[in-house]
Amino acid sequence: MAIVLGPNRYGKAETRVVHVTRDGDVHHLRDLNVGISLSGDMDEVHLTGDNAAVLPTDSQKNTVFAFAREHGIGEIEEFALLLARHFTAAQPTIRHARVEIEEYSWSRIPSGSGHSFVRSGTEVRTALVHSDGPGGAESVVSGLKDLVVLNSTGSEFHGFIRDEYTTLQPTDDRVLATEVTARWRHRDPGRSEYGGSFAAARRCLLEAFAGTHSLSLQQTLYAMGRRVLEERPEICEVRLTMPNKHHFLVDLEPFGLDNDNEVYFAADRPYGLIEGTVLDDAAPAVPAAWT
Amino acid sequence: MAIVLGPNRYGKAETRVVHVTRDGDVHHLRDLNVGISLSGDMDEVHLTGDNAAVLPTDSQKNTVFAFAREHGIGEIEEFALLLARHFTAAQPTIRHARVEIEEYSWSRIPSGSGHSFVRSGTEVRTALVHSDGPGGAESVVSGLKDLVVLNSTGSEFHGFIRDEYTTLQPTDDRVLATEVTARWRHRDPGRSEYGGSFAAARRCLLEAFAGTHSLSLQQTLYAMGRRVLEERPEICEVRLTMPNKHHFLVDLEPFGLDNDNEVYFAADRPYGLIEGTVLDDAAPAVPAAWT
Amino acid sequence: MAIVLGPNRYGKAETRVVHVTRDGDVHHLRDLNVGISLSGDMDEVHLTGDNAAVLPTDSQKNTVFAFAREHGIGEIEEFALLLARHFTAAQPTIRHARVEIEEYSWSRIPSGSGHSFVRSGTEVRTALVHSDGPGGAESVVSGLKDLVVLNSTGSEFHGFIRDEYTTLQPTDDRVLATEVTARWRHRDPGRSEYGGSFAAARRCLLEAFAGTHSLSLQQTLYAMGRRVLEERPEICEVRLTMPNKHHFLVDLEPFGLDNDNEVYFAADRPYGLIEGTVLDDAAPAVPAAWT
Amino acid sequence: MAIVLGPNRYGKAETRVVHVTRDGDVHHLRDLNVGISLSGDMDEVHLTGDNAAVLPTDSQKNTVFAFAREHGIGEIEEFALLLARHFTAAQPTIRHARVEIEEYSWSRIPSGSGHSFVRSGTEVRTALVHSDGPGGAESVVSGLKDLVVLNSTGSEFHGFIRDEYTTLQPTDDRVLATEVTARWRHRDPGRSEYGGSFAAARRCLLEAFAGTHSLSLQQTLYAMGRRVLEERPEICEVRLTMPNKHHFLVDLEPFGLDNDNEVYFAADRPYGLIEGTVLDDAAPAVPAAWT
C-alpha cells in the first residue's frame, strides 16, 4: 500500500460579475455567477506546498472581470469557453479547466428609462464547460434550474408495487408539481447558437411538461427530455432532476366538508426525487462533461 | 419587584395552502403561506400550563384549510380578515388576532392547457391584518417583498459627511440596486379593492424607482413611498426597507484596462440598509398595525 | 392631508469582523457580525437627496474595523456601546444609534496549537444596543438565537379548547422541541458584567427548559424567562420566541407495529410559534430597547 | 439516431426520522435525514407511465420509519445498509439502491434530566451506501460536512504563478479557514466499527488541520486525507472539499493605524474551492461509491 494523491481540482467559486453595455440611453445588463476549477500538474502543491504550478484563485477572479471588459459577455456558454480555453492555453501546468456559470435574468421596468431593471423569475440559466486546452477535448452543457412548474390536473399515479409498507392509495387525479433542474449537452461544443438554443430548449421543457398527461413523474421527465432532443438537433443528451413537490389533498371530512381536488397542503419534506437521462444513442458518451 | 407575564402571543406559522378553482378546463391557482398569532386571556397557560383558554395551533391550521374550502380564497387581505375575525369572534378568550399571508405568483405556461402553471418572479405579495374582534379595531397592511430592482445609471452619491474613518469617494454615476420590502397601510381596512390597489401600488413603486434621478437611496425610498400615497387615496402610510445592494466598479487599471461603468462586482455583505416611512400626516397613527 | 416623512433609519448591516489577539503562542479569536442603524436630522436627504447630514455607511463599516484595532473587542455589549456612543457623540446630525451584534463561537481544537479553532455550536450570541448620545438614554439587550433543545418526555398537552375545527388528540407524553431566540434587557445598561451574565442567563434558560415538566410550551417559556429574572438581578425583562418544532409520532399500525413514543417524524412547516415576555413589573418599560 | 433512456434513479429524499430509546429514565436520541434512490427495470415507467416496477417513494418513507422501530438505529452506515439491502432483496425490479443519511448531533443538557438535549455543533455526520442486492457489490462511504475550522497563523502562500491578471501579494502569515466536507470509503463495507471509526477519522482531520504548517490549502487538504489513511486501516480513500473562507486583513493605514494580523474582514464570495482525493493505490477504485 502507498498513499497517493488522486483526482483533484481547485479554483475560484462564485465570482459575481455584472456587466453593463451602454447603447446610447439603452443599457443592457448581464448578471453572472462564475465558478472556475482548474487541474493539471498539481502533485507538488499537495505533497510539499510548492505553489510553482498554481495560478492563484485571486488571479482567476481578476481574469473574469478583465475578460468581461475586454470581450464583453456574450452567451454564458461562450464566456465560459473563453475562460476555460484561456487558462489551459496560458498556463502549461493547467491541463484542464472547468467553468460553470449561472445567469440571473432581469427585465426592463415598464415605462422606465432604458437603464431600469427588475429581477424576473426565480429561474436561473446555467452553463458548464470543460476544456482540455488547445487541440484537446471540449464539452458544453447548457441548462436551467429553479424552474417551478405545476399541473393542477392531468396527472395520475396507480398500478405501482404494493409491499408490506405501502399505504399510498392510487389516484387518477392529482396535482403534479416540480422544480426542474435540466442540463443538456451540445453535440458540437463550439457550434451551437446558444441563445436561441436555450430559449427553444426551455420552451420544449415547459410545453412537454404542460402537454403530457402523466401517469408518473418519470413519464413526464422522459417526455421533457425527449421533446428537447426531437426538436433541437444541436443537443444530444438531456439530464433532468425533478423533485416531486407533493401537494396533499387535505382531508376535510372531520369538518363536514368535501374536498374535490380543491384544497391542498404543499409539503416541504420528504419529497420524491426523480432523476433521469434522455439521449441520442448515436452520440458518443462524455461522462466528464457533467461533473 | 414582582415577576409578571408581559405581552405574548401564539399561533400556527407557515401553513402552506394551495387552492385550485376549476372553471371548466381553465383552472385558477392560489398559493399561500399563512401565519396566525392569537392573544388574549393567556395568563393561566403561562403560569400553570392550564390550556382552557388555548385554541390549539393545530386547530388554527385546520381552520385555514377549511376556510379555503368554505369561502374560497379571494384577495389575501380578505382571507386574512376572514380568519382574524373568526378567531376573535368564536373564542371569548381570544381578544386579538394577527394574520400574516404571503402569496406566491404563478403564470400560465404559454400554449399549455388551462391547468399548467410556472412560478413567476422572485417577488412575494404580503398582507398583515390585525383584528380586535367584533366592534374592535382592525387594520390591514398590504405589501410585497423580494422585489429586486437596479438602475445602471442615474444615481449619484456625494456631499456626505467626511469623518476620520471616511475613505469613500464621491460619485456622480453609480449602479443603484436594492431588494424592496414595502408595506402600506389601508386607510379604511374593510373598504379597499385590494387586488387593483396592490397592482397599482406595485406599479407606483417600480415607476418611482425607475424615474427618480437619485442623489441617495433615501431620496429614492421617499419618492417611492410618496408616489404610492399621491396616486392611491386608499393608502395612508408606506413603510419601506431597502438594502443597498452594492455593485462596486472593479479596478481594472492593474491590467491596463479602463472601466467606464461597465464591469461591476456584486457584493453580498456588508450592505447599506435604508428604512423609512412616508405617511399622510392627517391619518391617525396605528403602530400596532405593523407589528 | 400632507405627505410627510415618518420614522427612518439607515446604516451598514452585516459587517463581518474577525479579531485575533496574540497572547504569545496562544491566540484568542472573536468573530462578529455588526449591524449599525443611525437616525437623526435626515429630512433633507429624503426630500432632496442632500447628504450633508449623512455619514456614509461605508464610513460606519470602516469604524467597526478601526475600533476593533483601537479598542480590541471586549464583550459584544461593550463593543456595541462603544460604537453607538461614538456615532451619536461625533456627529451632531446623528441623534440616535442602534448597534446589533451577533457573535459566533469557536472552540480550540484539542491537541492543536494555540492558534487552531473549530466552530462550536449552531447557537449565536446577540447584543442590541441603543444610544441617544451623551447624556441621553441608553439600553442594552443581550441574547442568543438558534439554541435548539428537545425534551423526549416530560411534556403533555391537553385540556385545550375544542372547536369545530379541532381534531388534535390530547396527549400526556410528547416530544417538546424548540429553537430558542431569547433576549434580555439589562436594568442598568452600563453596569452589567456581560460575559458572566450571558453564561449564567444561558444556563438558566437551559436548566429551566430541562427542568420544567411541561403542560404547554407557554408554560415552559414562562418558566425559562422567570428563571433568568430570579437568578440574575441585573436583568429586568426577558423576551422569548419559541417555535414548536413538532415531532409527530408515526402511526406504524398499518405495518403491524406499535410505537410507544419511539419513532417520530420531525416536521418543518407549519409549526406553532410561541412568543412571550417575562418582566419585573417594577422596572420602567423601554419599548425602544427592542426594536 | 434513436432517442433512448439513459441512467436514471428515483426515491424519497429527506425523510426526517427521530428515534428515542428509553433506558429507564435515561433516553438516547438519534436524529437523521434519510435519502433513498432506487434504480433497476425502469424503462416502462419512463416510456409509458406503467408503474408495475415502481415501489412508491411513499412506501420507501414508511420503510424508514418502520425499520427504525423494528431494528432501532445503530450507526448510520448500518441503518443505510439495512435499508439498501432490503429494497434490492425485496423487489426484483430494484437492482440497485443508494441510501444517504445525515445525522445531527445532540448533547445532554448539563444538570438536566436524562431526557433533555441541546443540538451541538454545526457539523453533520454523513453516510452514503450503495448496494446491488444479494451477492452484488456494496460500498460504504462515511463522512462529515459543515466542520468549520480556522488557523489564525501558521499559514503562508507564496511562490505561485504570476500572470498578467495577478495582483495578489505573497504572504508568510495569513488566516486559513475552511468548512470541511470530508468523505471516506471503507475498504470492507460490512466490517468497519463505524462509530469508533468516525470519531477517529474526525480527530485525524482536526489534528492534521491544526498541526500542519501550511504553504497552501492543497497541502493542508492532502495532509488531512493522508492522516486518516495512515491511522485508519479500515479506510482506503478520502475525498475532501474545502472552500477557502477568505479572511482579508483590513487596511487601516488610512486611519493612521497598523494592522499586524489582528483585524480581518471575513468574506463570503467569491471563495477559493479546493477539492482532492487521497487514496491507497492498492485499493480497487470504486467510482460508483461516491455518486
TrEMBL record, chains A, B, C, D:
The domain of life for this entry's organism is Bacteria
Single GO term (MF): urate oxidase activity
Pathway stated in the Swiss-Prot or TrEMBL entry: Purine metabolism; urate degradation; (S)-allantoin from urate: step 1/3
Which InterPro entries does the annotation name? Uricase (IPR002042)
- Could you tell me which Gene3D superfamilies the record lists for this protein? Urate Oxidase
Question: Where are the coiled-coil regions?
Answer: none
Q: Give UniProt keywords alphabetically.
A: Oxidoreductase, Purine metabolism
Keyword DNA-binding present in the record's keywords: the answer is no
This enzyme catalyses: urate + O2 + H2O = 5-hydroxyisourate + H2O2
EC nos: 1.7.3.3
Role: Catalyzes the oxidation of uric acid to 5-hydroxyisourate, which is further processed to form (S)-allantoin.
Q: Please name the NCBIfam families in this protein's record.
A: urate_oxi
Family indicated by similarity: Belongs to the uricase family.
Q: What is this protein identified as?
A: Uricase
Lineage runs:
Bacteria, Bacillati, Actinomycetota, Actinomycetes, Streptosporangiales
